[in-house]
Specification:
66% of the residues lie in helices and 0% in strands. The chain has 107 residues and is mainly alpha-helical. It folds into 2 domains: 70 residues, lambda repressor-like DNA-binding domains (434 Repressor (Amino-terminal Domain), Orthogonal Bundle), CATH 1.10.260.40; 33 residues.
Amino acid sequence: MTFWENVDSELNFIGMERKELGQKAGFPESYISKGIARQSCPSADLALKIADALNVPVEKLVTGIDRKTSAKDNISPEIKAMITKMNKFSPEEKQVIFDMVEVLSKK
């Protein structure tokens, strides 16, 4: 995956919109679409601003790998997809899911 595809993936994972990222990092949201189309990488200073705004190491956006986590700490694609969906839930809906997990984990 390219830098911008990794950014887009991270945005989906945390439930942030491109526009919000652009505001936090200081660039127009159209940069993401253009970057994906061009398969390009931004300047180092912009990449750092984006990584900071996403709260991830810049290496994760460049390579797709976060070396600070071990293989056992990586989240499966199924769990990532579930988290992405849950980020759109209301606090009350999230609490229902948390309660269900708590009950099931005691079995």
